[in-house]
Design brief:
This protein is α+β, with helices and mostly antiparallel strands. The chain contains six helices and 15 strands. The chain is globular, with a radius of gyration of 19 Å. The model has no long low-confidence stretch (mean pLDDT about 95).
């Protein structure tokens, strides 16, 4: 068991003055299997009333508007989460069983369909089908795909952005966790395995001392369904464990951005982000 405290500070600075802005934040984790939220709070500056709801994909959303002129919008999400290991159950689900279940249930159909961000190029489809032919079950195929993609795509910040597609990242064989997740999800879906994008946080240093605050990061990984949902981090080639905190699920990044909105005013906006994580137990 581990207990993590996460402080996620983000927002927009405006070159001019924003006279109004309308926003959604997905920054607070929710209870999930192996994850219990002890506390969570979102502070917004300038102060704004919020409407909180759970979206279609099961993610906590804070919707708010700022109707006073402002030059900066700042959000600080602070959460304390207790994490316990979740064992991936052994399943006897074969390809015929998976096709029958996935084709009859809306949530699985939606996670089988490609999006513009996950659509794989032909050579990535070939990789997925080759992995399928070399393994014996959906679970083993999914793991093989994750390891092949994670081993082939170099983690390299600065070469992509939030609009970069899986096809573009795969062609460059480079990107950040968001890109590697998109490539992996696209390959899994090409093999006929329902897969979803996961947004959250990763404690980067397993050797950190108790109550030591380290610079963390927003992170992305994937989950696939093969009789049960199973998470994997293809960027780091590791199973999901006590360093991963889930915030939300979706078809791709566009379903779970930490912060998005529109504003009225002059000048461009720039995003700022810092994440600090402290292991408390």
């Amino acid at each position: 068991m581990s207990r993590l405290r996460i402080r996620h500070h983000t927002g927009f600075s405006y070159a001019g003055e924003a006279v109004a802005s309308y926003n959604e934040a997905r920054m607070l984790p929710a209870h999930a299997e192996g994850q219990f939220v002890l506390s969570s709070h979102l502070r917004i500056d300038p102060a704004a009333g919020t409407h909180e709801y759970v979206d279609y994909w099961g993610t906590r959303v804070s919707a708010f508007e700022v109707l006073l002129p402002h030059r900066q919008l700042s959000l600080t999400a602070t959460s304390t989460v207790e994490l316990r290991p979740v064992l991936h159950p052994e399943t006897a689900t074969g390809w015929d069983d998976l096709a029958r279940v996935a084709g009859a249930t809306a949530q699985f159909v939606e996670h089988l369909e490609q999006t513009p961000l996950t659509a794989p190029p032909p050579d990535l489809v070939d990789l997925a089908l080759e992995a399928k032919g070399a393994t014996t079950s959906p679970c083993s195929t999914a793991m093989e795909i994750c390891q092949r993609v994670g081993g082939a795509v170099q983690y390299l910040p600065g070469v992509t952005n939030v609009k970069t597609t899986a096809a573009e990242s795969w062609a460059a064989r480079a990107g950040v966790c968001q890109d590697i997740a998109h490539v992996t999800v696209g390959a899994l879906r090409a093999a006929g395995i329902p897969a979803r994008y996961v947004s959250g946080y990763l404690h980067p240093r397993p050797s950190a001392e108790l109550r030591e605050t380290v610079t963390g990061e927003s992170h992305a990984w994937i989950e696939w369904f093969c009789g049960a949902w199973h998470g994997y981090d293809p960027t780091n080639l590791i199973d999901i464990g006590e360093r991963h905190v889930v915030v939300g699920h979706g078809r791709d990044y566009r379903d779970v951005p930490p912060l998005r909105g529109v504003y009225a005013g002059s000048g461009a906006s720039s995003l700022f982000v810092t994440v600090e994580i402290t292991r408390e137990a």
